[in-house]
Design a protein that fits this description.
about 350 residues; four-stranded antiparallel beta sheet; single chain; about 40% helix
Length: about 350
């Protein structure tokens, strides 16, 4: 995962032993009192919206909000640990590891991101509670990073996934209409704020601030599965299986795919049939691209196989490309259709 032009979460999880991390509660989060909330808002650069909250939520809206809450809490945990590693001068996070960036600027930037993510989480949980639902509580997390640069690289990738998921949330709230319709513009403001973060993460890596004209879309099930790779199993107060989304088997992206790569190697813990399965790529706002897979080779229960990576001819965008191993070999008309057919995924590929 510590590659200059590509990051694959699945490979990263396998490469670094991660120590479980719990969000500290010294500022009262996730249940701050008014004084503590005022401090969080000051650091964040703004307040929670003060308009009326929905009092009626439909099932799809509830599931969407639960996913958003799970994600926001994960992000609070990630950036809180990152800040602690920097301020405590942990190996890999010292001043020379951050250079040429100014250490104090980075600390202020990460502190603001943490406060903003806390407000996002408080806001989503507030909407759930206003709609008669239980709030989502933090889990314990495990982050497969050991340096400042690897942490920023990972932050870019999971935020890219978020950027592809938030428009799906907007669509869900718009379709539900009623009380939820007002959430469309609210989520739009969060979407823009997350985009500002990605520009910073890319700048830190000496990448151009914006990756592509149209960023890669996603699907809630892909985001839900990806987030769980950072959650310590059975550590959540709420069983994640109670959230109405699908969790897929892991699709591991092996090696270092680049824009000019002809093929990509994958592995999954399960049976694969080249006549019944295919790899589908989602990139930019283009139609999904289906490519055949090679005859798998097995080591124990793990299947290894390759698939073409048609970056140029497939019209792929710079930045995030999502891969999924699907049942079937046909073309797909939408990301939702891909998600419905997915057996293993998502494989997250970042092209510089």
């Amino acid at each position: 995962m510590f590659l200059s032009s590509i990051l694959t979460i699945s490979a990263a999880v396998a490469s670094v032993a991660a120590v479980p991390f719990k969000i500290p509660t010294d500022d009262g989060f996730p249940n701050p009192n008014p004084a503590q909330l005022a401090t969080i808002q000051k650091i964040a650069g703004g307040t929670l919206p003060n308009g009326p909250l929905p009092t009626s939520l439909k099932p799809t809206g509830i599931t969407t909000l639960e996913l958003l809450a799970v994600n926001e809490l994960f992000e609070v945990g990630f950036f809180t640990q990152l800040l602690a590693n920097i301020t405590n001068n942990v190996d890999g996070y010292k001043e020379n590891d951050i250079a040429p960036l100014d250490r104090h600027y980075v600390i202020k930037s990460i502190s603001r991101i943490i406060a903003q993510e806390k407000l996002h989480a408080l806001g989503v949980n507030g909407i759930l509670q206003s709609g008669g639902q239980a709030p989502i509580a933090p889990c314990a997390y495990q982050f497969p990073v050991s340096t400042f640069l690897s942490a920023i690289t990972l932050a870019q990738t999971f935020t890219d996934v978020v950027l592809g998921t938030l428009p799906q949330a907007q669509a869900a709230f718009a379709a539900d209409a009623g009380d939820e319709f007002g959430l469309v513009s609210l989520i739009g403001s969060v979407l823009a704020q997350e985009g500002e973060q990605v520009g910073f993460f890319r700048y830190v890596q000496a990448k151009l601030p914006s990756a592509a004209p149209f960023l890669t879309g996603g699907n809630p099930n892909f985001a839900f599965t990806a987030i769980q790779s950072f959650i310590v199993p059975n550590s959540c107060p709420l069983k994640l299986s109670s959230i109405g989304l699908t969790t897929y088997g892991a699709l591991n992206v092996l090696g270092t795919p680049r824009a000019n790569s002809k093929q990509v190697q994958f592995s999954v813990a399960g049976k694969v049939d080249c006549s019944q399965n295919a790899i589908v790529y989602i990139s930019g706002q283009n139609l999904p691209v289906t490519v055949p897979i090679s005859e798998p080779k097995y080591k124990g229960d793990v299947a290894y196989f390759t698939a073409e990576f048609p970056f140029e001819q497939g019209g792929f965008a710079d930045g995030l490309t999502i891969a999924a191993l699907v049942k079937g070999t046909n073309k797909f008309a939408s990301n939702a259709d891909v998600a419905a057919a997915t057996e293993f995924g998502p494989g997250l590929i970042e092209i510089k």
